[in-house]
């Protein structure tokens, strides 16, 4: 029997606050199943924070059984140490997914924001606003890290629907050139 739904776990990695959002695609429509954050406040040692992220992420994979992982890639900022720590947190989640044979898809923050709002430099609040309207939700989580995680999952869903990225085309011009009969 063919599976008719797909679960995508979106992760906004962080060593202080890691956002997660689980969406399910059914009949080609996304709906939110779970959204929240993993906080590491109270852990003084960076390695204990990583252990907590590992344990909570393992729980998320075991509890929600996602089919795919969409994760935001670290971005280069002024603090190289912060970026390295963020990469460690991201690596933990990616490793857990790969251990379970769950495909991993990585998206740059600019790509996520652009796919949701149309603007790559949108503020976190704008992303949350667009998602709330896109998904017609009455309530929305207060933590912007959680909404960012949902945005990563929705970005992945939208990328799969895009014939340019789905077909391995370089751009829309390449798609049109190779599919002249699909343009009216």
Offer a concise description of the structure.
The protein has 184 residues and is of the alpha/beta class. It contains 7 helices and 5 strands, in the order βββαβαβααααα. The protein has helices spanning 46-64, 80-99, 109-117, 124-134, 144-161, 163-166, 172-178, and strands at residues 5-12, 17-26, 29-39, 68-72, 104-107.
Give a written overview of the molecule.
This protein is of the alpha/beta class and 184 residues long. The protein has one domain: Nucleotidyltransferase, domain 5. It is built from seven helices and five strands. The mean pLDDT is 87.
Features:
Nucleotidyltransferase, domain 5; about 180 residues; 5-stranded mixed β-sheet
Examine the secondary-structure arrangement and name the CATH architecture: 2-Layer Sandwich
Seen as an oligomer or otherwise, the chain set is single chain
- How would a textbook summarize the main sheet? 5 strands, mixed
Helix content: 40-55%
| The CATH homology group name | Ribonuclease H-like superfamily/Ribonuclease H
How many domains? The number is 1
Overall CATH class: Alpha Beta
Cα Rg: 17 Å
Strand content: 15-25%
Structure class: alpha/beta
User: What fold name stands as the CATH topology?
Assistant: Nucleotidyltransferase, domain 5
Distance between the termini: 36 Å
Mean pLDDT: 87
Which ranges are low-confidence, i.e. pLDDT below 50, for 5 or more consecutive residues? Answer: none
Give the strand line-up of the largest sheet: 3-2-1-4-5
Shape: globular
Number of helices: 7
């Amino acid at each position: 029997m063919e599976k008719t739904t797909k679960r995508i776990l979106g992760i906004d990695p962080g060593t202080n606050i890691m956002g997660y959002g689980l969406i399910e695609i059914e009949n080609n429509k996304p709906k939110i199943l779970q959204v929240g954050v993993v906080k590491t406040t109270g852990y003084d040692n960076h390695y204990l924070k990583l252990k907590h992220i590992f344990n909570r992420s393992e729980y998320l994979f075991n509890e929600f059984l996602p089919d795919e992982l969409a994760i935001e890639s670290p971005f280069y900022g002024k603090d190289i140490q912060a970026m390295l720590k963020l990469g460690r947190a991201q690596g933990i989640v990616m490793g857990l997914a790969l251990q379970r044979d769950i495909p991993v898809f990585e998206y740059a923050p600019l790509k996520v924001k652009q796919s949701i709002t149309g603007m790559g430099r949108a503020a976190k609040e704008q992303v949350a606003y667009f998602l709330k309207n896109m998904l017609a939700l009455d309530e929305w989580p207060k933590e912007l890290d959680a909404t960012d995680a949902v945005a990563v999952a929705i970005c992945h869903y939208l990328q799969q629907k895009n014939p340019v990225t789905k077909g391995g085309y370089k751009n829309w011009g390449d798609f049109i050139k190779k599919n002249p009969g699909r343009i009216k």
